[in-house]
Design goal:
Layout: E1 8-18, E2 21-28, E3 40-43, E4 46-54, E5 57-62, H1 64-69, E6 80-85, E7 104-114, E8 117-123, E9 137-140, E10 143-151, E11 154-159, H2 161-166, E12 177-181, H3 184-203, H4 210-215
Antiparallel strand pairs: 1-2, 1-6, 2-5, 3-4, 3-6, 4-5, 7-8, 7-12, 8-11, 9-10, 9-12, 10-11
Amino acid sequence: MFTGLIEGTGRINDSRISGGDMDLLIMPFFDMSDSKIGDSVAVNGVCLTVTEMNEGLIRMYASSETTSKTTIGSLKRGAEVNLERAMKLTDRLGGHFVSGHVDGIGIISEKRQIKKSWLMGVKIDEGLSRYTIRKGSVAIDGISLTINVCQTGYFEVNIIPETGASTTLIKKRPGDMVNIETDLIAKYVERLLLKERAAENRNGASTINMEMLEQFGFGSNIK
């Protein structure tokens, strides 16, 4: 699990694809010496596992499923990437819950500077729009951002100077592809509602009632 608060960036020193699987060698631009083999690291928002550490370089593996569903497969030597290690239970959750499991690829359609910040518009698959709401959260290349405008197949975010300076995002241009992970909680809520609807269709009655809500501590807040 990650927070979407990027620790720093790194550079792809080598990338090799064989049968769809990919081997990445990354040089972090910040201290990751306390990392170890088996640790999870989000690379541009994609959760990968450390397989080797040697003289400051970190090797990671991406399966064909990952390379086919994210932008990881397009990374070439010299590319700069966002890096975040998995959160500790004692960490502050400054961003939002980010799983590192990308939902799809977005395309930057607009980018313009407004005073010291940047406005960025992103086109996404229309099927992902049901998980986007105004002032909700989204992860773009692993970066936790707040949605300012959302429409079917499109949303806009604002990139503040600190985020721009510490990530790769403002270096992106219209037409560039980015990894999109929508809000984790929204997907669980949708799943719950779908299961509830299926239960209603089978039984003719809702399983969500006052007794159930009170059992989970919500009854006293319902008027």
